[in-house]
Amino acid sequence: xxxxxxxxxxxxxxxxxxxxxxxxxxxxxxxxxxxxxxxxxxxxxxxxxxxxxxxxxxxxxxxxxxxxxxxxxxxxxxxxxxxxxxxxxxxxxxxxxxxxxxxxxxxxxxxx
Length: 112
Ligand code: 5GP
Ligand code: ZN
Description:
single chain, HIT family, subunit A, 5-stranded antiparallel sheet, binds zinc ion
């Protein structure tokens, strides 16, 4: 989608602080980090949110979590949180599916 911010970042049309890239996704530093480590895992293919995934997206969803696990290890995190905000009321502000990998501080439960 030409006008989607994360499509433009994932295609490298817009610059970002890239942590990792493969054929399916990019991982970038969040522009407004809420933890010492705050990485966004963004699929290259446009999917609006977790509510819009289909059976055929199982491989992509698994891959996103595998990469989150691997990046957490490579970034030296032994405790971390992987978050998806789905829908505006849950805090989603960019309507292109992404996971937040957060670490480097303690987290409370339940989240706010
Ligand atoms: P959401 O609120 O949709 O779950 O997460 C969107 C995230 O994208 C926010 O944490 C926000 O700081 C981040 N973000 C928004 N615009 C940009 C941008 O242009 N570059 C980067 N790296 N992060 C962004
Ligand atoms: Zn998009």
